[in-house]
């Protein structure tokens, strides 16, 4: 009676591990998000273990039965459509219930798209926050992105191909000079990783960067306000101009992060230039 939380390839089937194949062959049941997707994987590796659907829409109904079967001695593997189960996918509830019931489980590891994108980003990864998927409604998405852009740590999130332009547009509007990295089709034939300032990245979408495949966005953390406040307002403006911002952009940025009126910063800046 055991559950094996089993990682599968993100896209390249050659990344499947011997241990994962052996596990899927020897358990009694494979729990999967979409039986059609997992069937392609099991067929490729000649695995004939029965598949059973376990996803966000039925997990509440099937978990009691799974726990009962485990008490009877059956073994299960939990897989996702690609990558490591539980990460932005169903499963943590089942793990919690197994802990409460004193049932055993093991991890059969694989990569997750967000960790691989972070590795490929060239953006500091000593401290980072994984945000998963953004909210669906535009208002909530914008509010969440404003929160992320104010975050001082590196941020990682998933985005769909039909929303990536809108998301980059919001990011560029908040801070067009912020470094972002886009990774798409990770481990697949047309794998791509691009690191640019947000406003430049926005212009590349649809041309140099194809709007196909799932996207992972890595966003550089915001500058620490505590450090920025150690210098006078005008020195702060001049420092941003030296980094490549226009005076208008620098004035707006300084006003935003310091909680000042943009007109006041504008007036002071132009007074110093007389």
UniProtKB/TrEMBL annotation:
It comes from Salinicoccus cyprini. Its EC number is 2.1.1.198. Residues 2-200 form the Tetrapyrrole methylase domain. The keyword rRNA processing applies. Keywords: Cytoplasm, Methyltransferase, rRNA processing, S-adenosyl-L-methionine, Transferase. Belongs to the methyltransferase superfamily. RsmI family. GO terms for molecular function: rRNA (cytosine-2'-O-)-methyltransferase activity. Its main location: cytoplasm. Catalyzes the 2'-O-methylation of the ribose of cytidine 1402 (C1402) in 16S rRNA. It is an enzyme of class 2 (transferase). This is Ribosomal RNA small subunit methyltransferase I. It is found in: Cytoplasm. Pfam families: TP_methylase (PF00590). One of its GO terms (cellular component) is cytoplasm. It catalyses: cytidine(1402) in 16S rRNA + S-adenosyl-L-methionine = 2'-O-methylcytidine(1402) in 16S rRNA + S-adenosyl-L-homocysteine + H(+). InterPro entries: 4pyrrol_Mease, 4pyrrol_Methylase_sf, 4pyrrole_Mease_sub1, 4pyrrole_Mease_sub2, rRNA_ssu_MeTfrase_I.
């Amino acid at each position: 009676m055991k559950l094996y939380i089993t990682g599968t390839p993100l896209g390249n089937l050659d990344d499947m591990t011997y241990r994962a194949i052996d596990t899927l062959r020897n358990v009694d049941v494979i729990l999967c998000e979409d039986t059609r997707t997992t069937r392609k994987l099991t067929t490729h590796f000649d695995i004939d273990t029965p598949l059973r659907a376990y996803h966000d829409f039925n997990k509440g109904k099937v978990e009691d039965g799974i726990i009962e079967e485990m008490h009877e001695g059956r073994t299960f593997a939990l897989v996702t459509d690609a990558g490591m189960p539980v990460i932005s996918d169903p499963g943590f509830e089942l793990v919690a219930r197994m802990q409460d019931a004193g049932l055993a489980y093991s991890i059969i590891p694989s990569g997750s798209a967000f960790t691989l994108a972070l590795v490929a980003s060239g953006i500091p990864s000593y401290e980072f926050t994984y945000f998963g998927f953004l909210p669906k409604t535009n208002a909530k998405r914008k509010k969440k992105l404003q929160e992320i852009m104010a975050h001082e740590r590196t941020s990682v999130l998933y985005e769909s191909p039909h929303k990536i332009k809108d998301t980059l547009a919001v990011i560029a509007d908040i801070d067009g000079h912020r470094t972002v990295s886009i990774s798409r089709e990770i481990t697949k034939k047309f794998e791509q990783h691009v690191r640019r300032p947000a406003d430049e990245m926005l212009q590349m979408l649809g041309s140099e960067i194809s709007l196909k495949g799932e996207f992972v966005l890595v966003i550089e953390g915001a500058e620490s306000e505590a450090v920025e406040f150690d210098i006078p307002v005008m020195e702060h403006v001049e420092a941003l101009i030296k980094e490549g911002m226009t005076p208008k952009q620098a004035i707006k940025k300084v006003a935003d992060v310091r909680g000042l009126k943009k007109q006041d910063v504008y007036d002071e800046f132009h007074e110093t230039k007389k």
